[in-house]
Specification:
The chain is of the alpha/beta class. The chain has one domain: Toll/interleukin-1 receptor homology (TIR) domain (Rossmann fold, 3-Layer(aba) Sandwich), CATH 3.40.50. It is built from six helices and seven strands, in the order βαβααβααββαββ. The longest helix is centred in the middle third of the chain and has 17 residues. It is globular. The C terminus is likely disordered.
Length: 211
């Protein structure tokens, strides 16, 4: 990729999304991994994220360590702090390297700062995860040839629930795209004072912060 330091690349693709899109994105992540790509997806990297300064580390992943960034754009994505942190890092990289790094996928029609309507995008409402991954593999040069037909999107299809997705373990610590408040559903603002550690859920099912 022009302008990128090939020696710094650790992932073929990083995925940026809000919790609301996790069922769809999880299927995409698994399919990409099964196709042999190195994928940055939070559930694949929980052990690596544990204990790190996530503001600095995620900036490195989205700005320096990935060959391309697939952004799943939605109202939740535009609203929440951690997806926006990822977005700003990815946009800084795209500004430096030019076209081709940011690959937007729309989950609804929400305007997201810095993502222009003139940028080509895919629509998750019209593509199954399998079809989206097929297009991404072609984009990266590892899928179908130009002479082979691509999967046709199904009109007005809503993103399906994750297939065979494991039931969440309520006692498990999660580090995800919102990274601090349980399965990416919280964290509309970044917690101040460096208190980014959440414990197991209480009786209401919500993770309680330490401190």
């Amino acid at each position: 990729m022009p302008g990128a330091d090939a020696a710094a690349i650790r992932y073929d693709v990083c995925l940026s999304f809000a919790a609301d899109q996790r069922p769809y994105v999880q299927q995409v992540a698994v399919l990409l991994r099964d196709a042999g790509l190195r994928v940055f997806y939070d559930d694949f990297a929980s052990h690596d994220l544990w204990g790190r300064d996530l503001v600095a580390y995620l900036d490195e992943i989205y700005r320096e360590r990935s060959a391309c960034c697939v952004m799943f754009l939605s109202a939740a994505y535009a609203r929440r702090a951690w997806p926006n942190h990822e977005r700003r890092s990815a946009q800084a990289r795209a500004f430096r390297t030019g076209d081709g790094y940011l690959l937007p996928v729309r989950c609804d029609d929400t305007a997201v700062p810095g993502v222009l309507d003139t940028v080509g995008h895919l629509d998750a409402r019209r593509l199954t995860p399998d079809a989206l991954v097929g297009l991404l593999l072609r984009k990266l040069g590892g899928g179908q040839s130009e002479s082979q037909p691509e999967s046709r999107p199904e009109p007005d299809r809503q993103p399906p629930p994750a297939r065979n997705a494991p039931e969440p373990d309520p006692a498990r610590f999660r580090v995800g795209g919102d990274y601090i408040a349980g399965d990416k559903h919280g964290g509309d603002t970044i917690v101040s004072g460096g208190k980014h550690v959440y414990g197991p859920p209480d009786q209401s099912g919500r993770s309680a912060p330490y401190g």
